[in-house]
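@channel anyone free to eyeball this complex?
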Amino acid sequence: MADRAIRFQPSGSRITYRPDATLLELAREAGVSIESICGGSGKCGKCKVVSTHGKQKLSPTNEIEQSSLRNDEIEAGLRLACQTRVLSEGDIVVLVPEGSRRGHHRLLASGIEPAVELAPAVSKVLLKIPPATLADIRADDDRLLDILNSEAAVRANIAPGVHRLVPSALREKSWEATVTLFRKEELIGIDPGDTTGELLGIAVDLGTTKIVAYLVDLATGSTIGTESCPNPQIPFGEDVMSRITFTAGERDGLDRLQKVAIGAINDMIGRLCSEADRNTVDVLEIVVVGNTAMHHILFGISPVHLATAPYAPVVRKALSVNPGHLGIDIYPFGRVTALPNIAGFVGADAIAVLMSSGLYEQDDIGMMIDIGTNTEIIAGGRDRLISCSCASGPAFEGAHIKNGMRAATGAIERVWIDESARKIHLRTVDDASPKGICGSGIVDAISEMLKCGIISASGAITSAPEEGWNVREGSDRKPEFVLYEPEDNGDGIEVSITQNDVQEIQLAKAAIYTGVSTLLKKLGVDCLDISTVYVAGAFGTYVDTSSAIHIGMYPDIPPERIKFIGNAAGSGARMALKSVEARRLADDLSRKVEYIELASEKDFQSEFAKAMFLPHREPDRFPSANRST
Amino acid sequence: MADRAIRFQPSGSRITYRPDATLLELAREAGVSIESICGGSGKCGKCKVVSTHGKQKLSPTNEIEQSSLRNDEIEAGLRLACQTRVLSEGDIVVLVPEGSRRGHHRLLASGIEPAVELAPAVSKVLLKIPPATLADIRADDDRLLDILNSEAAVRANIAPGVHRLVPSALREKSWEATVTLFRKEELIGIDPGDTTGELLGIAVDLGTTKIVAYLVDLATGSTIGTESCPNPQIPFGEDVMSRITFTAGERDGLDRLQKVAIGAINDMIGRLCSEADRNTVDVLEIVVVGNTAMHHILFGISPVHLATAPYAPVVRKALSVNPGHLGIDIYPFGRVTALPNIAGFVGADAIAVLMSSGLYEQDDIGMMIDIGTNTEIIAGGRDRLISCSCASGPAFEGAHIKNGMRAATGAIERVWIDESARKIHLRTVDDASPKGICGSGIVDAISEMLKCGIISASGAITSAPEEGWNVREGSDRKPEFVLYEPEDNGDGIEVSITQNDVQEIQLAKAAIYTGVSTLLKKLGVDCLDISTVYVAGAFGTYVDTSSAIHIGMYPDIPPERIKFIGNAAGSGARMALKSVEARRLADDLSRKVEYIELASEKDFQSEFAKAMFLPHREPDRFPSANRST
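replying in thread with the prediction:
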């Protein structure tokens, strides 16, 4: 049997093969989900795999593969799983690259977990304290701090308020007690007996649109729970700028935004703890990352100056405050810590992504892109790092798009158009009937429309009815392209891409590309000099890399140089929660990373205008797009 | 005229003299109030003065003076003002020593003001901050802290919460702002423009019986207001021990005691500020001193372990907390600072008295006694200091005394008995009709009763009716000595000293003397080795030194070695408020001063029993008392 087995990596799944089955079929039977949207015709080109052992037992590359794959991909041994069959018996190993795995984004949703040496800011020490006697009448504070110094080499102060806990904690379990320290400088808690195993922290990624919280066991370093919710500030303003306007224009606007954010965080703390069967007072520290405006609002600091030149933040440095200061429901003498910011629109979340990507320690030039309603980009490496922020808007979240929706059940997330058959292939989240289209679907749709000539390089929907595409006049009297029409008595709703939708995406992608190209120019490098682009954020993880390059959102680099790091802001927050060394790194990076204010760059307007084209007004910048259209 | 003038020092009052007038009369006419209670008969011996210039123009020492004054006093040139007349013309200067000045205690009520170099923990710096521009996009915190470092050489952090104030304060007066610093480490405030002249602090002496608060202008160092009130915890327990019992035995007992104390402090802050026409939010720091139990209760720390062996305090070290932590109504980002304690019954107030006395830097051996319901004693000098606490009880405040009262209008404050005439001379506060007797009156009364043989050395009222004193059987069937009987239709009420009253005072004075003698023994010195006894506290200031020595409360040293320092706890608190150097001193002293637990001393019981005698079971210890009885 072993000589008729095929192994899929990296999952390790193994299946006995049978004649004539394609690798795509065998993989699915083995439980390995490979992307494919064209029904196995080889036209969508999504099911790329590579055989690392026994490739001579496979069918040779056929014509379909030769037209779908680039020359360099063929040279690198890439195959389309739907076109490749096993010809002879023997041991075969097939590697399924990350980008070909269906649902890989779901695995990445909570972000990668970079290894850090466990050294959290909160720590516990078990002490046996010499009892108070008439021969040793030291005060409790001296007695406790003396032994802490002699046994653990820690010279600490007792935090205000914690003194109240000391006398009974010392005496309740015969002068054996566990002290909790913050940064080995401040004694923030004391319990009778040994409680060193109980050490919880929470990392929070406070996004403009979504808040994610992770419960971390700081005694072991493992993440024991994840919760997320929409940012309840959305009704007060969809993007950062409208929320800043709200704080400036509405009575108690800042207080109200602060309050709902803290309420949401407290709800998540409650859910995380109750699911893990722990008490919220056992959570000793929360590390929060967010963009600068979210950061300021959380701390009750007016963000109003972020909105006008020179866009200076009030706070760059890291903050650590008592939970009571904000009304956060954890251990009252614990800490709420925010990582440092870089600039008014490049916040602690960008620092967190940067830390989690490892870009800062790279010898060659790399880039990280965290796509959201505001997209932060940092480019460079070990020697120099430059950042900027692009107002990409909420279009990728489905906002301002006629049939736009979040990536929830029924959202069209993949589009592939069979040009010759005039047939549109769609995939929806959970394979449900279409209810709308999410960001990755729109990017695919526009890329495919461009490939098929339904839209021009300027973004105009130009296809005439006689070309065979379902293009009609929309309610705004502008043309729209119908992507999906439910059949009679069929499920789902009609989904179309309007002229306005195309323009929203053009604005968003132009904003990102202008940021990318400005940073590259500042660094004096060409886009092919970039060794790796780390793409963070949910949308960045879901979107198809080739489509994103094809419309000119990402720089035109070989797709394999693009690495997905998921919710890297959350990963970076967990790194900081688990390691004071990571916090030191965050402090260093917040000082080191330069900031470019894009709007005040001399060429910004013309660069942006050129980037509005699909993929770009200067086609030389996208040689691969030229080749495939 | 000048050659017939007499000057009184240190007041500087000057008057032309006339033949036959006594110095006492001339002094009164010049507005210099000299003590005298015997109607100028020379018998009470209170009106001691010394001529420092022109003494050969005064009448020679007469027989009355020779019997009233000690030999060493006569040798030192002391005269009784009521017996001394001017004989010839010429310039004469008469020094009226502190102890002979009537009402000197009122001047001392707020304590001496030792000079300290003005360097308060809160300070202000005016800064011109480089404005934020597109060419200088630093965050507000970096911008502010950079200039603070370069202009004032201060490397500070911004305190949590203060960030909120920064952006508008920077911009409101064209980037000129005043920052408030705590210990030049933390930026706790920022105002637009120049507010460096506004710098207020409050010092609080939180006594078991009385709370005194001083408003200090920290820009100039001057005290601009004083307020006092009874400690509102009194209804929950008269002395420290009963309050500790209350916190242990009553539901929310600690909270209730804490709340009333804070309420009283807030009331005083309000009154001090409204009288000085300032706002309470302009008060940046409060320095509090009190005994260890008052200290613990103020901070919400259980004092219950102070009451049982080994009487260890929870906190020795100095504390500085945010006002909101306790609910104190001053600038919310200011500080409430408590000086360090020494032991369970020697608190921050003793440190404050010690600082204000200067005893700690004395080359020879001295002693400080702060008399209250608890009396703290510290003996020693530069090389070594030993402290103890004596449970002297509230008898000196008039409590547990049949006709006892506070030193208010109508309280008998001085008693002198003319033995030969069987006549009792009294003086009352404000010269009103007698309503009761206060501590200094009781000590005088017992000293006089002892001199006249109305009580024995054991304290028994032994006088038989035929001896001519108004001794009768009291309601408790024990003898009592009638001090004052209103005449028919006269004002005032009857005041007598009961057998029980005598015993209460014996217990109180024995407690103090046992402390004194134990410390002297530990230091290996004799009482005459003491160069100075610094007496602090209201009662200590009011009580007649000779009477106090005569009943065996103070050690038997020449009365001129006793110095009154008034409310020295308040003085020490003001020193610390005005000077970080004084706080460093307080920290040093709290570590340096040794503590003796009297009750666990081997000889304590027998020493105490011997000290119950008047003046002492071992008469050798009080040679001066032997001489005068």
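from a first look: Residues 2-102 of chain B form a domain with the Ubiquitin-like (UB roll) fold (CATH 3.10.20.30).
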